[in-house]
Amino acid sequence: MHQALAQVKSHLGANAVIVHTRTTKRGGLLGIGARMVVEITARKSESGTSQHRGRGHQRMQRIYSTGTPHNTSETPASDYGSSFDRLANDRKLEASQSFRRDRMPEVPKKPIPPQQDAKLGAEIGELRVLVESLVKEQRQLHAPQMPEQLFDMYLDLIQREVADEIAREMMTQVQRDMTGDQIMSVDLVRQKLIQVMDEMISTTGPISTNIDGKARVVVLIGPTGVGKTTSIAKIAANLKLRQNKKVGLITIDTYRIGAVDQLRMYAQIIDVPLKVVLTPHELTEAVLLMQDMDVILIDTAGRSQNDELKLQELKTFLNAASPDEVHLVLSSTATHSHMLSAAERFKSLGVDRLILTKLDEAISFGVVLSVLRKVDASVSYITTGQDVPDDIEVAGGRRLARMLLGLSGSENEFGQKRDGYLV
């Protein structure tokens, strides 16, 4: 306190009037190590307008002096005066610098002349070509020996996320089956590549009915969010409305909010029966009650391929249904690693067919070849939109090959496209 009073007298004189005093603690952690701060508000007695605040505390050296601070030392009154002078000078300097910045005129930016801008663009273009050439040379060092025309097609496959070993295998077969003159034609090479991919992609054709007259039981499984319910509604609508088949729907997807209502709405629109089951025993009974149907389609809840407990629960339901077909539904928008992981984990549930959804949203289809190579299953359907009953096609090798190469068209070995559904 006496240090702060000495500071007040030094700046305002001995006749200074004390207006207000306050003692507070500052700093520290949870009250530990806090310092005591005394704040005095004073004014000159003759004017009554000038006010000043002086502060004193046990650790003021930490703020106003350059010496090493310690807990027991006190700061002389003279140090406080010099400290305030330094603070005042620092503030004047900051204000002066701020004034200079505000008054300093902005240097206008000179526009780049059109000739120089064009030259810069040309140089960037040349640099890009050079980098692409170097990348191509590096790839060619590690790629199989092939003519430049085939090598360009090989690079295109890699950019479309086709696995390197699969791209090499296909281009090697193309080179083996074509003559030198044929290889010079880009169109002929592309047609041959489509043929090779068509032979590589295994497809099953549409869902058919059993010869013995029993209902054919078909189950759709897969990860969450891949479009199982929408796909099953599309298949049911096409079987009922376009092929005049008797179709029954069963759902065990009681986990997802609104899933049952969504499928019930579809069932009412296409006029097919729907049963909701909660246990494997109820599923067995529902299948028996629908034996007069041509096809029974069973919708399941989405399961993470990493949730072993849920996968085993799903396997219990599949055993109760004794299905004729198990379709694994995968989204074409998923990453390469996610699709492969899902395909490998669901394979243990007896998957024998694949449904590829959201091909209209996919950036590339190269991952499809890798999935088909890893999983011993064939593609049954592909979906290309959300419209029911449209936007679904029976999978065809040539169709998938053309989509993989970025070509339009709906040619398919099963026939021509009719109302969005290939039969």
- Helix content range: 40-55%
Total helix count? Answer: 15
Structural class: alpha/beta
What is the overall shape?
A: flat
Structure described in brief:
The protein is α/β, with parallel strands linked by helices and 423 residues long.
Description:
There is one protein chain. The chain folds into 3 domains: 2-96, no CATH class; 145-200; 216-422, 3-Layer(aba) Sandwich (Rossmann fold), CATH 3.40.50. By secondary structure, it is an alpha/beta fold. The chain is flat and about 115 Å long. A hairpin with an 8-residue loop joins strand 1 and strand 2. It contains 15 helices and 13 strands. The chain has helices at 2-12, 61-64, 77-103, 114-142, 148-159, 164-177, 180-183, 186-200, 228-242, 259-270, 280-289, 308-321, 336-346, 366-374, 397-404; strands at residues 17-26, 35-43, 51-57, 216-221, 247-251, 274-276, 295-299, 325-331, 353-357, 378-383, 392-394, 417-418, 421-422. The termini are far apart. It has an 8-stranded mixed sheet, sandwiched between helices. The chain has a 3-stranded antiparallel sheet with strand order 1-2-3, covered by helices on one side. It has a two-stranded antiparallel ribbon with strand order 12-13.
